[in-house]
Specification:
Structural class: alpha+beta
Low-confidence stretches: none
Largest sheet: 6 strands, mixed
Number of helices: 3
Distance between the termini: 32 Å
Radius of gyration: 25 Å
Mean pLDDT: 87
Number of strands: 13
């Protein structure tokens, strides 16, 4: 199964918004007109999409499978399993947003909430970082915000089909042909 971070985020949106009770939950780094942004609001962003360790955690399996080519009986299927880590950053904007940030943390740490939701995507919560004060200076004033990161480990299966040679036809110098099954 291929990793689809967009599907995870799209389907997580209503769950997380409902559980936290936040007025607005949006993807960070969008070009949204300022008059459409409200407080309190929560943003999510994939800050690290795949770690280098992903290529170090490959597990391979080799199997003979039925061929999808009608001219052949069998092919070889190689299955590779990688387990990259991704980082999801959660930020809440506004004055006194403790209740929202705490509910978001709960959603990612309580087994029956976020972790159960993420099972459908072969994802496991590996770590939820400490909540940080992420107050930022914007042109002339500070914007209050708090946030934390969620590190997820996501299993991905990559399958490669290699076509096989099932017969070899050999013609000698005299023009005699023999067919060998492999």
């Amino acid at each position: 199964m291929a990793i689809d971070l967009g599907a995870i985020a799209y389907n997580m949106h209503p769950e997380l918004k409902s559980y936290t009770g936040i007025s607005q939950l949006i993807e960070a780094n969008q070009d949204i007109p300022p008059d459409e942004l409200i407080y309190p609001r929560m943003t999510w962003n994939w800050t690290i999409k795949y770690t280098p360790e992903a290529r170090q955690s490959i597990i391979a399996n080799k199997a003979v499978v039925a061929s999808d080519d009608p001219n052949f009986d069998k092919d070889i299927e190689y299955s590779y399993i990688t387990v990259p880590r991704v980082t999801l950053s959660i930020n809440v904007f506004g004055d006194d947003v403790s209740q929202y940030i705490n509910k978001a943390r709960e959603w990612f740490t309580i087994t029956q909430l976020g972790p159960r939701f993420l099972e459908d995507y072969n994802a496991v919560v590996k770590e939820v970082t400490n909540t940080q004060d992420r107050k930022t200076f914007l042109e002339t004033d500070y914007e209050d915000r708090q946030g934390f990161d969620v590190i997820l480990s996501i299993e991905e299966t990559i399958k490669v089909i290699e076509k096989t040679i099932e017969q070899v036809e050999i013609t000698d110098q005299d023009g005699n042909t023999k067919i060998y099954d492999l």
